[in-house]
User: What shape does this take?
Amino acid sequence: MKFILIFIINFYINGIYAFVPPPRAEVTANLVNNRIYFNGGWNGSSSSDFFYLDVSVPFTTNNVASMPWTDLSSIPGLIIRSGHTACINGTNIIYIGGFMNETDPKFTSVFDVTIQKWSMPVTSGNLIPIERHYIHCVSSRNGIYVYGGGDDVLSMIRLDVSNLIWTTFSGSLAPLVPVGYSATLLNDTSILYIGGGTNLRLGANFSYHSLEQLPLYNINYNTWSSVATSGSIPLPRIDHGAVFIPQYNQILIFYGSNDTSILTLDTLKFVWSVASISNIGGSPTSLFSFASILVGAYILIGFGRSNDSTNLVTNNFFLLDVSQKDNYKWVTTYDPTKQLQSVQPNPTTSTSSLPSNSSSNIAAIIGGIFGGLAGLIVLITIAVLIVKRYGHSYHPDLVTLQEKSSNQPIT
Assistant: This one.
């Protein structure tokens, strides 16, 4: 009976979730409709598979084979990529750039998750360099933005997803972080860039960017600026993970080349601090070029290369429970019903950082003041009229008799 039970368990695990993704780095991860879609990557050569993880059901990360994987590699139209990026537009995942093993490489390809189909859109525009790699895209109301992509590429390109037109922007304040950075959209107006550098993986001439001043790109005006940070400023790093938790106004950065720490950045005050994690866990060695993504009340970290002497690619997965702000912990079990803790917004006394509805509040206050004054004026006017009408010896009975006899108002 014991052997039959073991057989049934093994059949369930290996039969339903037969696909196990092999180790890789430089992979993209995008969450759409309770599925995390993983594409491409590098494991000695560019990986040719495409698959998703079902996050609508519970799973554990200590047995990768038991996780609910589904392989989509057999769907025609897959472009083999590594060092690329991907952004979501509705039910489409748009894949951009990277290294491609294709005889006719496509800078842009699209996967529709609803109909499970690939397409190769015909785009137009100016100056579209095919060799953009180790990049991150950001999707906003104005389109999809991609910065850099090579040591000699210091421009921003934007894809108008409605018309499939690429536009190139450049500026005198563009940062020297064309590869290996992370990019986060803040308030749908600015893109914050963390880390990165030049001459990625080319050795002695490598250059990092300080995390004391962070580049900021304004998507409304297509201009660059920088923001000063304070607190426990981390060492420069590349190929790290950066996950934005908008409910907490906080970016968590993980691992990466040249550093092994995990830190947080307050996106309201731009203050760095060491992440408050209550237990030991995560990767036993620091990683770089891995995937990291917020799903429910967890940050999922997977794949990547070990930042040690082995420099091996992995298919390990780690879960950080972030359900309570600044009280994070490493876990191995994913619960799809768990939610992030509600956090009240921080009060502020600065007039420059009033919430977006502050003007309506001010208008309401002014309106109330004028309304009160108008009411007072009406009352005073009525009182004056009464005094003029009846004099100082007003008596209601006398007034009534006089009005009846003369049918004229008393003055």
User: Anything to note?
Assistant: The chain has two domains: 18-343, 369-406. The mean pLDDT is 81. DSSP finds three helices and 33 strands in the chain.
